[in-house]
Write a structure and sequence with these properties.
Elements (H helix, E strand, L loop, with lengths): L5 E3 L5 H13 L3 E3 L13 E3 L8 H8 L4 E4 L8 H15 L3 E7 L9 H16 L2 E7 L5 H4 L6 E4 L5 E2 L4 H13 L9 E4 L5 E2 H12 L4 E4 L2 H8 L6 H15 L9 H6 L6 H7 L12
Parallel strand pairs: 1-2, 1-4, 2-3, 4-5, 5-6, 6-9, 7-11
Antiparallel strand pairs: 8-10
Helix pairs in contact: 1-6, 2-3, 3-4, 7-11, 8-9
Length: about 290
């Protein structure tokens, strides 16, 4: 029997691309979806679908026609992101998609400190309401974000206080998502999995780990909310986006991202990657922090 078709959204991105590659290697029929088909990867056995912007319900319905399962990677942050998600979900239901696996965020709630986590909760609520089979993968912060958010001056700054974060590797998210998608039964229906690293650490501890790898002192500088907004003002980003940046740190300070789950090892059969292991395997991630860089 032929396996049901899996439509992977965001297939040109860091999560969707990894998931699509893993599924394609197993021989499962995969349809790659994205706003710009020219950015989709070429994978043996995978087929690129037509342009599929989340906010275009008719385009999404056409792109999902014949798919059994949709892997829904959350849209880029925007003021309209919840509406885009709802449009994509409704298009999937109209196209006859039977199951949606959605990439959410750790601690998603209507009153989450991290403003973008509220978007995820509203999307989850809509998925529950429409009655489609669903699974939620609530990712923690990305391990890759820690060196990326550290400036070339060797400073990681933000209003994270002494809170802890259970950051997770993209590879572990992709492995976990693939395990869920490849299970054609109902064992994952209605489940919510917190996808985290093996430990929760402070940002000061992250700076220490970065120091060991970079061969220079990397510091964490705690900021107040006012200082955080001021230090990011030069980017010229809209208010809603800056609020997302700042509240992501404040969620750490509030203890909302300290959860450590066994979901990654339980789903994948291997341990979740630590920050030390991630940095050891990805030296390019902190190359801008090396002396003389």
């Amino acid at each position: 029997m032929t396996s049901p078709l899996v439509a992977v959204t965001g297939a040109g991105g860091a999560v969707g691309g990894r998931v699509a590659a893993r599924l394609a290697r197993t021989g499962v029929p995969v349809r790659l979806l994205g706003r710009n088909p020219s950015r989709l990867p070429e994978l043996p056995g995978a087929v690129a679908g037509p342009p599929a912007p989340y906010g275009d319900g008719e385009a999404m319905r056409r792109a999902l026609d014949g798919a059994h399962t949709m892997f829904l990677v959350s849209a880029h942050e925007s003021p309209d992101r919840v509406r885009e998600h709802i449009t994509a979900v409704d298009a999937a239901v109209a196209a006859g998609v039977e199951r949606i696996v959605y990439v959410s965020f750790l601690g998603a709630a209507p009153d989450a400190t991290f403003t973008f986590a509220r978007d995820h909760w509203h999307t989850e609520a809509h998925l529950r309401m429409v009655g489609v089979r669903h699974t939620f993968l609530r990712d923690s912060w990305y391990l890759a974000g820690l060196p990326a958010m550290t400036g070339a001056d060797g400073v990681l700054r933000g209003p994270g206080g002494d809170g802890r974060v259970s950051a997770v590797a993209h590879e572990d998210i992709a492995d976990a998502a693939s395990a869920v998608l490849l299970e054609e039964g109902s064992g994952h229906d209605g489940m919510t999995y917190d996808l985290t690293g093996p430990e929760a650490f402070t940002l000061a501890e992250a700076a220490e780990e970065l120091s060991l790898r970079a061969g220079r002192t990397i510091r964490y500088v705690p900021e107040t909310r006012e200082q955080a907004y001021a230090s990011r003002a030069h980017h010229g980003a809209p208010d809603w986006e800056v609020a997302g940046w700042v509240t992501s740190y404040e969620a750490i300070a509030a203890g909302e991202l300290a959860v450590v789950s066994n979901a990654v090892p339980a789903l994948t059969g291997h341990p979740a990657k630590s920050l030390a292991a991630y940095l050891r395997e990805n030296p390019d991630s902190y190359r801008h922090l090396l002396p003389g860089a």
